[in-house]
Every structure is written in structure tokens, then in C-alpha cells.
């Protein structure tokens, strides 16, 4: 298992790592990049961070934030390919060692005690804890949008072909109309970084992820959109392409942040 060094030079057994940048961050933690950074007590620098999650020799949970984003990105890419990678950020790149984990992990380091929060020291922040993703709310809504983005073809098959090119949104549904109006407002009044993100899709299309207060939208620039609302647990609303959605999606894609 790869290891790194914490801010206190105590060995950390690395379990996983994630990127925290305006274009890529764990959606479950917030609707935009500054919100996620604030929850972790980090400044929302444009260059972003890498978050390294692991356990110390006593089994305590720690999250190490490093400015060496490229190193963490290389490690994640190697692990995704099934390759080993010793993730060891230089001490000068580490901006903080935070107690706890912001994400739920189902793995643990071998030959150390079970994961637990470290003993609090005077002046230490409260340990990070994962959002409650069991009960429907913002975290679960964002996780649902993540799932649609990853399983687009499966969700798209559930929408009848004729409906896909109907008027954009159910005009009788006030929540969907509100989402479309707020998304249109982003075009003239850009939201905080990360509220609109663009990633690769099939062909020349892009996958758009748009979030706002109480809602998430997932769309393909060449297709339709899906909307999820905090006030409607588990409901997913297809938004037909119609005459207006293509232009809206194109405009959102132009202002979206993209992975480097």
C-alpha cells in the first residue's frame, strides 16, 4: 500500500485520493467549488488541491490536503489502471492535515487499528465526517445526478423518443421551470466556480453538470436534460430538447469549467 507523510511527519497509510478543483470535486460535498472548500476549511484557490485520505499508525482517520494537484491526478490515473503508485506529496506542498474523512470509505489499512477519529487536541477543528447520503437531501440529490451522468445511456433509454424533442420541461411543473430560469440566469450572471461543469461525452458532445440551490441538472449538449429537486425525493424529471434547450446548453457549456 502506498504511503505518504502527514504534516507532522507521522506515517500515513494512504487509502484513496480525490481531486478538489473548480472542475473536479466530490459533488456530494457541495454545489460548487467554494462551498466544498469552505466545508473543509480551505481557501478556494483556482489551482485547487489534492485530498489524500488515509490512516496513521494508530488507525486514526486523516485527510491531507496538498497543492500538488498533478501528483494526485497521476496517482488516481495509475490506480484506475490497476497500477501501483506511491503517493507521497512533498512536505512543502501540504497545506493541512485534517482529522477525519469527508467521504465514506469501505476500506481500511491492514495491520493497524480500525478507522477512528484521532484524539482531539486543543485548538484542533472538529473531525471531518461524510454527509448523510441516506436521507434525501442536497447530498443525495447530487449523488443522484452523479449516477445519471455516469449511466447516461441507461437513463436515456427510459425517455420515449417523441418526448425527447418536446417543449423543454413540463410547463405545469413549477420546480422544473424554476431550474430552467435559474440556469438561464447563469449565462448573464455567472455563478461561483464549479456550479457549471463540462466533461467529455460521446462524439463531439459534452456532458454538463449544473447545480443550484436545491437542484441539480445533468445534460448532454446534443441531447436532453434531467433535473433533480431537493423537495421531490427520488424524482428525476426529463427535460425535452425542444427549441430552447440547445441554445441554453451551448451557452452553459461556454461558461463551464473543464478538467485540464
Automatic annotation (TrEMBL):
Positions of region (Disordered): 110-137
Protein name according to UniProt: Integral membrane protein
Organism expressing this protein natively: Streptomyces auratus AGR0001
Amino acid at each position: 500500500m502506498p504511503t505518504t507523510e502527514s504534516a507532522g511527519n507521522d506515517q500515513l497509510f494512504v487509502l484513496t485520493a480525490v481531486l478538489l478543483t473548480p472542475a473536479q470535486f466530490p459533488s456530494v460535498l457541495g454545489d460548487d467549488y467554494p462551498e466544498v472548500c469552505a466545508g473543509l476549511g480551505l481557501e478556494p484557490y483556482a489551482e485547487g488541491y489534492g485530498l489524500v485520505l488515509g490512516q496513521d499508525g494508530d488507525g486514526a482517520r486523516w485527510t491531507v490536503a496538498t497543492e500538488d494537484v498533478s501528483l494526485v491526478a497521476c496517482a488516481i490515473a495509475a490506480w484506475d489502471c490497476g497500477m501501483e503508485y506511491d503517493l507521497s506529496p512533498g512536505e512543502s506542498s501540504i497545506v493541512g492535515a485534517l482529522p477525519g474523512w469527508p467521504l465514506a470509505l469501505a476500506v481500511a489499512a491492514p495491520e493497524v487499528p480500525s478507522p477512528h477519529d484521532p484524539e482531539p487536541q486543543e485548538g484542533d477543528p472538529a473531525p471531518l465526517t461524510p454527509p448523510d447520503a441516506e436521507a434525501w437531501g442536497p447530498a443525495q440529490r447530487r449523488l443522484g445526478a452523479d449516477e445519471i451522468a455516469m449511466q447516461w445511456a441507461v437513463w436515456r433509454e427510459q425517455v420515449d423518443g417523441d418526448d425527447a424533442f418536446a417543449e423543454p420541461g413540463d410547463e405545469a411543473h413549477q420546480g422544473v421551470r424554476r431550474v430552467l430560469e435559474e440556469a438561464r440566469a447563469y449565462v448573464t450572471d455567472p455563478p461561483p466556480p464549479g456550479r457549471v461543469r463540462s466533461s467529455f461525452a460521446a462524439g463531439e458532445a459534452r456532458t454538463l453538470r449544473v447545480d443550484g440551490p436545491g437542484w441539480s441538472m445533468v445534460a448532454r449538449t446534443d441531447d436532453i436534460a434531467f433535473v433533480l429537486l431537493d423537495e421531490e425525493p427520488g424524482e428525476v424529471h426529463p427535460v425535452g430538447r425542444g427549441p430552447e434547450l440547445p441554445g441554453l446548453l451551448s451557452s452553459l457549456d461556454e461558461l463551464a469549467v473543464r478538467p485540464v
